[in-house]
Amino acid sequence: MAENNRSASTEDSGNKEGSDFIREIIREHNRSGRFGGRVHTRFPPEPNGYLHIGHAKSICLNYGIAADFGGKFNLRMDDTNPEKEEQEYVDAIIDDVRWLGAQWTGMRDDDPRAGVIWASDYFQQMYDWAVELIRKGLAFVCDLTPDQVREHRGTLTEPGRDSPYRNRSIEENLDLFDRMRRGEFPDGSRTLRAKIDMNSPNLNLRDPVMYRIVHATHHNTGDNWCIYPMYDWAHGLEDSIEGITHSICTLEFENHRPLYDWFINAINLGRTDDGSGPWGKKIHHPQQIEFARLNLTYTVMSKRKLLELVKGGHVRGWDDPRMPTISGLRRRGVPPEAIRNFCSTIGVAKVEGVVEIQLLEHHIREHLNRAAPRVMAVMKPLKVVIDNYPEGRVEFLEAVNNPEDPAAGTRQVPFSREIYIEEDDFREDPPKKYYRLSPGAEVRLRWGYLIRCVGVDKDPATGQVVRLHCTYDPATRGGNAPDGRKVKGTIHWVSAAHAVPAEARLYDHLFTKPDPDDVPPGGDFKDCLNPNSLQVAACLVEPSLVNAAAGSRVQFERVGYFCVDRDSTPQRPVFNRTVTLKDSWAKVEKALAGG
Ligand code: ATP
Ligand code: MG
């Protein structure tokens, strides 16, 4: 199956694209000529964890907008914090964005990192601009400890207090900042702060910290720096340097927008469009726009919590198929198209909400129904002996790979005297309307013959059914009776001599509660981890699956959608259940509509 589908984010989704409030703002900008008709977005992950389905929403939105407006899209590592960032995360992020189908500027197939932008490459430029703010009297070196800075900050109802270092001379500030950079001071002993307003009702504007001292080795810049820029200072500058037009972020940054703008305006103070101002040419000023982050039922999305699940051994790693990470979803068998269609359907809004996880499952089914080849596998085998079928004979029956897709062709499935069917497809005392197998009843074997149950072997001790005896009608090859007699039920099966024992990993929601964070005081989201989120079962699959490549997605007929895991070997194929066949979304939708 195509692992690397890099088509546009909107191709198979339809509807909502092109009509959300962010695109409206962009159209307005294009009309007014605000950015000269340019559209340039970015996805700026901090490489301190794997990407999750929430990030997918942001990627689809940012890349989708760039694609819709013929603009550009940057993939930028926001690697401004040396302490929590790791190489493994960087590699996974790049891989996941590519897999999802977003194409960033400068992307190439022969070099995974081509075109990826590193915020840390801007450290010198950011530093120079910080010096400029000091010279303009808009920033100062503060000797308060982090605790003291907090105390001076005030609260929503109380104004803050000026730092006693606020009125240092420009010369002293320049000197101290230079020495901060050269490593003269220990961690946490000084900061560079913007000189804004300790009385601002917006706490973010109360002389926010721009730089802190951290003597740590950075994965990109090594030991070149021991001062690191804070997010609010760094982020707008990164956007500006890259010429980002629309800096799209989640709602919690709404209160930071005035600061985003203040910093760029502060740099532009004394600058002009033509560069004739005392400080030169104005820098680019992007527009920050906020949207509501994705929340999903039965899911936690914070990287801190996901890391806790990994570190605590509650899951088998970041790409555990139960994780909401992109790599987890991918390993589980979720196609990128399903994630893109899901993101397109949920759209973007200005108010937070929670999306039902069944909606994601619905999109997974919808795509796999069209794309996944059908195969037969038996989860709870019950032996059937076809008494009138010659012993030792094997014939190959033609099976359609995907009724939804004639181009998927057919395959040959071996049939013999002994087969396995699902335990559930036989009832000794069938209820009304039970069209499967029962004593005396006839049923159709998928792609095979009609068989009739003529006997039942039981375990004498337990009375349990251990084997069925059937007869087949040789005139019904392919499943239809020449006399036109009606047989309603069709069941799947595997030939006992040819079936391959395999492992099925059956997944359920990772949490038992729709909102895992809804715990009593003193509780923890891990309290509602679902003990049955993974069940490992043995199953029997048709031999065509022995050499299926890891990542291949199939439908086990009448059972569910499965994906070959990377733990799979020809001796022991391993399948992850991506999703069951039953569409519970339809039910949810009905319930929602009914109120
Ligand atoms: P954390 O999980 O620790 O809060 P984060 O999700 O903010 O971290 P970043 O790497 O900073 O992690 O996120 C990169 C981008 O993805 C940001 O622009 C952020 O707004 C966006 N993003 C993060 N979570 C979601 C979400 N649930 N829905 C939509 N966008 C999100
Ligand atoms: Mg963040």
Largest sheet: 7 strands, mixed
Count of DSSP-assigned helices:
13
N- and C-termini, Cα separation: 40 Å
Write out the distinct hetero groups bound to the structure.
Answer: adenosine-5'-triphosphate, magnesium ion
How much helix is in the residues? 25-40%
Mean pLDDT across all residues, rounded? 94
In the predicted model, the low-confidence regions spanning at least 5 consecutive residues are 1-17
Beta content comes to: 15-25%
Give a count of the beta strands, DSSP E runs of length 2 or more.
25
Shape estimate:
elongated
Radius of gyration: 31 Å
Q: Structural class, from helix and strand content?
A: alpha/beta
**Order of adjacent strands in the largest pleated sheet:** 10-23-24-25-21-22-11
Secondary structure layout:
Blueprint: H1 21-32, E1 40-43, H2 53-68, E2 72-77, H3 87-100, E3 117-118, H4 123-135, E4 139-142, H5 146-153, H6 170-181, E5 191-194, E6 209-213, E7 227-229, H7 231-242, E8 246-250, H8 257-268, E9 287-291, H9 303-311, H10 326-332, H11 336-346, H12 357-371, E10 374-375, E11 377-378, E12 381-386, E13 395-400, E14 410-415, E15 418-422, E16 442-445, E17 450-458, E18 465-472, E19 490-491, E20 494-495, E21 500-507, E22 534-541, E23 553-556, E24 560-564, E25 574-580, H13 584-594
Parallel strand pairs: 1-2, 2-3, 8-9, 10-23, 12-18, 16-19, 21-25
Antiparallel strand pairs: 4-5, 5-6, 6-7, 11-22, 12-15, 13-14, 15-20, 16-17, 17-18, 21-22, 23-24, 24-25
Helix pairs in contact: 2-11, 7-8, 11-12, 12-13
This protein binds adenosine-5'-triphosphate and magnesium ion.
